[in-house]
Amino acid sequence: DAGITQSPRHKVTETGTPVTLRCHQTENHRYMYWYRQDPGHGLRLIHYSYGVKDTDKGEVSDGYSVSRSKTEDFLLTLESATSSQTSVYFCAISEWGQGNQPQHFGDGTRLSIL
Amino acid sequence: GQQVMQIPQYQHVQEGEDFTTYCNSSTTLSNIQWYKQRPGGHPVFLIQLVKSGEVKKQKRLTFQFGEAKKNSSLHITATQTTDVGTYFCAGRPTGNQFYFGTGTSLTVIP
Q: Does the domain spanning A4-113 belong to CATH 2.60.40.10?
């Protein structure tokens, strides 16, 4: 498996609190992605990064922000968590652009917002 | 909205039976990828299809990309208990974003 570490693996928090999820890779891949997975929706792209400090929005970006200050780290922040953001969050990486490269996924973070 | 639809949502088969999942898009796709996710696990890349009408095989798995590049299928011959999991297609209309299907959850009954 690709060297991808997500932290924390599980988190329970309350509505209105800020939450930051971390994705760390050891593959030196250029592209990194954040997805959320919900029953009946498959995987939906939140944000992605194509280099240090270069990010773009995905399909469901409202309520989320991201930062990438180093090649190996991609952070996902929920500024004020809501119950609708309860989900499993996956980080993924690909060597080049998303268009024709396989994506390798981390083990996921299970986030519950009460 | 959901750009890639996948059916069926669930499929239960007896071990040894065949299984097929279908992926459909309202728009032409540049390429399509297939992933497998075991229960409690993360998606794992299986294959990518790029050409119109393309067929690829991996042992008991056969992947097809439609002539119009709007649909795709994954067929498993003689299922085994190790095939259990959810199979996702991911289609790319244009640009850099893939749209994942809702997945088909496969249960194999021994």
A: yes
**A44 neighbourhood in chain B, CB within 8 Å:** 100
Distant-in-sequence contacts of A60-65, Cβ < 8 A, 24+ apart: A60/A36, A64/A34
Q: Does A45 touch chain B (CB under 8 A)?
A: yes
Chain B neighbors of A40, CB-CB under 8 A: 9, 102
B95 to chain A: which residues are within 8 Å by CB?
99
In the three-class reduction of DSSP (H, G, I as helix; E, B as strand; rest coil), residue A102 is classed as: coil
Sorted by where each starts, the structural domains of chain B and their CATH numbers stand as 4-109 (2.60.40.10)
The pLDDT tens digits along chain A (114 residues) read 669 999 999 999 999 999 999 999 999 999 999 999 998 888 999 999 999 999 999 999 999 999 999 999 999 999 999 999 999 999 999 987 656 789 999 999 999 999
